[in-house]
Design a protein that fits this description.
elongated, binds adenosine-5'-diphosphate, 4-stranded antiparallel beta sheet, 17% strand, 6-stranded mixed beta sheet
Length: 339
């Protein structure tokens, strides 16, 4: 660039051009340089994007292996049975779930507990027929789950995961979206909010169920993470589905709200099959059955009282958490006394 600029100056001096012309030519050289460097960086960006496109085309070329079943999912159903189910992810040799034998009965509640990586999420994915077992079979009322069509299965499922959506709508729409057929049915929305315990904080909002959420709106309010989580649970309760899946639903709730929600679930007498993935053992006392997964295997299965008596993995994990709760409570008490 400097060489070209020096050349321009020499040519201008020799041709006796004006200072204005000289400045114009030097600027033109700069513009040319910028244009060329832009073209080169665009070419490199295009090349980079093409690399990603290759992956997308590769993904689209993978043939669809899944064949949807023809049967409608039974509503109501009686039981879901995992028979000798083992699973490993494609391309891996490691079994994530091994020889799972368990019966999940309608209108009962189950807690799925275990350390990270023990296979809890994979178990839920198999139950939702998102994956096919590598070995063994899953039966719903005696018929293989793959014979049911997925959309009819999904219609019977409500789920709350940790990464739920915070819709920038008003409260009633945020809840109603859980069941589009009843989107504008305020009575149903209020009933669901009472069942989840969300109605308490909603009653304190300026416009109750009409309150707009998220700061995008003028005159709107934003909620705490725990309140958002209660809304997400309420949304799931809107749908009269036979299966309710709660994947760490109370992770952002304080201990009191968490306890309230579990008491509400108790009052609802578990009119659905409720499967709860949780790390907090204090909640598992209320459920009908606790499934303890360890390294992909069911290590223990039973009620809270039975597993505590067995003095196995569950009992020791429960004791560990109970001790830390007691310690926290004692520290809180100590702080209050010394204040
Ligand atoms: P949990 O929910 O108990 O934390 P997961 O079911 O998510 O456990 O995972 C169990 C094991 O499966 C983990 O070791 C994880 O690394 C592995 N895993 C999860 N998803 C995939 C995947 N898509 N491909 C390969 N391995 C996976």
């Amino acid at each position: 660039m400097y060489f070209i600029k020096v050349l321009v100056v020499i040519i201008c001096v020799n041709s006796r051009l004006t200072i204005g012309s000289l400045t114009m030519y030097v600027t033109a050289v700069d513009n040319l340089k910028n244009a060329v460097s832009n073209i080169l960086s665009l070419l490199s960006m295009a090349y980079e994007n093409c690399l990603y496109m290759q992956s997308i085309f590769h993904l689209l070329e993978i043939p669809e292996e899944y064949q949807d079943g023809k049967r409608e999912f039974p509503s109501p159903f009686e039981r879901i049975e995992f028979r000798q189910v083992s699973f490993r992810y494609p391309g891996t040799h490691h079994y994530v779930l091994k020889n799972i034998n368990v019966v999940l009965e309608a209108e009962h509640s189950y807690a799925l507990v275990g350390l990270n990586g023990s296979g809890k999420t994979t178990f839920i994915k198999l139950l939702l027929n998102l994956y096919k077992p590598t070995e063994g079979e899953i039966f719903v009322d005696g018929i293989n789950i793959s014979e049911y069509n997925r959309s009819s299965l999904f219609q019977n499922v409500s789920a709350v995961f940790q990464d739920f959506i915070q819709y920038p709508f008003d409260i009633k729409t945020n809840i109603g979206l859980g069941y589009l057929e009843e989107l504008n049915n305020l009575d149903k929305i209020i009933e669901a909010a009472k069942n989840s315990g969300a109605d308490e904080f909603i009653a304190q909002l300026p416009e109750k169920y009409e309150t707009r959420l998220k700061k995008e709106w003028s005159g709107s309010v934003d909620l705490s993470l725990g309140q958002w989580q209660k809304l997400a649970i309420t949304r799931a309760l809107m749908k009269p589905s036979a299966i309710l899946i709660l994947d760490e639903p109370t992770a952002s709730l304080d201990a009191i709200s968490e306890h309230e929600i579990f008491m509400q679930f108790q009052q609802m007498k578990f009119s659905r099959l409720c499967i709860m993935v949780t790390h907090r053992f204090v909640n598992t006392r209320e459920v009908n059955n606790i499934i303890v997964l360890q390294s992909g295997e069911i290590r223990e299965l039973g009620t809270h009282a039975e597993l505590i008596q067995q003095k196995g993995v569950y009992a020791s994990l429960y004791r560990m958490q109970a001790d830390s709760y007691e310690k926290e409570a004692a520290e809180e008490f100590h702080e209050k006394v010394t204040m």
